[in-house]
Amino acid sequence: MSERVTYKRLLRQFAAIGPYLREDLCEEGRYRFDCLSVCVSAKPAPDKREFWGWWLVLEQDDHHFRYHYQLGFYDADGVWLDKPVPKKHQAEVERTLNHFYKLLVDRLTVLECHLAPAEQVINELAVTAA
Fold first, then answer.
1. 87, 94 Cβ separation under 8 angstroms
2. Helix count (H) and strand count (E) of the chain?
3. How far apart are CA 95 and CA 129, in angstroms?
4. Sign of CA dihedral 32, 47, 93, 74
5. Percent of the chain at pLDDT exceeding 70
6. Nearest-CA neighbor of 114 among 66, 76, 78?
7. β-pairing, 64-74 with 51-61?
């Protein structure tokens, strides 16, 4: 097992995955990601648009990471709400989450780290790389 992976190194690695990392919401041992998968309407100004998507929290204990994710609604104020995704958008939201999950697994594997669902996910439908 390699030495402990530093916070700064993890931030760099997670940022390299793509536009998912919310660095301003991260702290050592806890990382936050999200994805605005489906735009509700392109009519409002870009900073007031609403989306269907997901957010994921990754918690670290040395080389072990546990994740919990939620599907929902990103409102015009930039707040995630726990709302059921409409059936017509579910496939796209799940596709983006599964795509991110595969990238995250690949990145953590390179760092010799392990990823597992958090306790609350175990009883829910856990994300798996498609």
1. no
2. 3, 5
3. 10
4. positive
5. 88
6. 66
7. antiparallel
φ and ψ at residue 113, rounded to 5 degrees: -115, 160
Please report, as a single letter, which amino acid is at residue 107. R
Q: What is the DSSP letter of 3?
A: P
- Written as six digits, the tokens of 90 are 């579910």
Query: Parallel, antiparallel, or unpaired for β 114-117 and 64-74?
Result: parallel
On whether the CB atoms of residues 101 and 129 are closer than 8 A, the answer is yes
pLDDT digits (tens, 9 = 90+) for 64-78: 999 999 999 999 999
pLDDT digits (tens, 9 = 90+) for 52-102: 999 999 999 989 999 999 999 999 999 999 999 999 999 999 999 999 999
Helix axes 87-110, 7-17, angle to 10 degrees: 140
